[in-house]
């Protein structure tokens, strides 16, 4: 690897490989491991220090070993290193295409006439990678100006405003139908048997102790008559179950125990008990509740 990768490439490559492995295997949640765990940062610092020290030591050892060789052995080793580098033609060809540097033997042909205190300048062409990047920047600039200043396309600020507005609309639409985000304004009465069966199970588990299993009332009020203390109907009942009854003596709030969809089902089941006439019901409390949103009924006798 040393023949193809110089030390300034090899050291960062090894260090970041170890860094990536630690970030992958150490579970640190939503924070990088080296930030959440200071010991990892310390380990990486020590590892980098040791890695650089090893490279320096190996370089010094190799240099000392090279100086101990005889002139013939030095020449042979330099020839082998030169040949090994020439074998990596792909790297040499790539660098030549990117830089198009002239061979050192032809530098005399590139010297310019002027001389500054013995310092001369080579008349090299700009590297192709720099020229191509410059052309790409020009093309990008032209396209950018035409798109945003001439054609009036949305810039980043306008795109953000539109995305935020659309996101607000999407959230509102989602909340209209999301079962666990409904409230007393969006809840609707359920009448299907599966929902009422689930509501009955919730009622038996959580509500029967105060209202009796048949809803006739015990500590809590009778739920089968037409009178309500805090208002009847699915919306009022949903609000009462969610937030609790009267302060100090009413029912507790169930929003911390039941999900909105569960509250909807148990409220729908309670309303299905209307007029069931259980045995020995508790005396009615509250006032008769009338649904003001219901269409008025024409009571005029027909002629």
Automatic annotation (TrEMBL):
Record's protein name: C-type cytochrome
Keywords: Electron transport, Heme, Iron, Membrane, Metal-binding, Transmembrane, Transmembrane helix, Transport
Gene3D superfamilies: 6.10.280.130, Cytochrome c-like domain (1.10.760.10)
Molecular function per GO: electron transfer activity; heme binding; iron ion binding
Transmembrane segments: 6-26, 38-61, 129-146
Region spans: Disordered: 274-303
Cytochrome c domain residues: 194-274
Keyword Electron transport among record annotations: yes
């Amino acid at each position: 690897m040393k023949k193809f990768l110089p030390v300034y490439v090899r050291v960062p490559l090894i260090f970041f490989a170890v860094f990536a492995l630690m970030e992958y295997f150490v579970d640190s949640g939503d924070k990088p491991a080296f930030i959440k765990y200071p010991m990892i940062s310390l380990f990486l610092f020590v590892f980098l220090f040791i890695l650089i020290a090893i490279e320096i030591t190996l370089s010094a050892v190799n240099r000392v070993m090279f100086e101990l060789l005889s002139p013939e052995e030095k020449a042979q080793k330099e020839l082998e290193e030169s040949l090994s580098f020439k074998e990596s033609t792909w790297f040499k060809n790539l660098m030549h295409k990117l830089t198009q540097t002239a061979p050192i033997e032809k530098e005399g042909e590139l010297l310019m006439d002027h001389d500054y205190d013995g310092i001369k300048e080579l008349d090299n062409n700009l590297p192709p990678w720099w020229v191509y990047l410059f052309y790409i920047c020009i093309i990008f600039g032209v396209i950018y100006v035409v798109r945003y200043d001439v054609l009036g396309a949305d810039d980043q600020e306008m795109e953000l405003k539109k995305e935020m507005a659309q996101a607000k609309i999407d959230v509102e639409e989602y909340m209209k139908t999301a079962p666990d985000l409904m409230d007393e304004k969006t809840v609707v009465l359920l009448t299907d048997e599966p929902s009422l069966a689930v509501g009955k199970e919730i009622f038996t588990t959580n509500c029967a102790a105060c209202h009796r299993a048949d809803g006739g009332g015990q500590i809590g009020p009778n739920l089968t008559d037409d009178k309500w203390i805090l208002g009847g109907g699915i919306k009022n009942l949903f609000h009462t179950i969610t937030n609790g009854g009267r302060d100090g003596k009413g029912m507790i709030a169930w929003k911390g125990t039941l999900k909105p969809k569960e509250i909807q089902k148990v409220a729908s089941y309670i309303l299905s008990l209307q007029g069931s006439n259980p045995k020995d019901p508790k005396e009615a409390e509250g006032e008769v509740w009338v649904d003001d949103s219901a269409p008025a009924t024409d009571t005029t006798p027909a002629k």
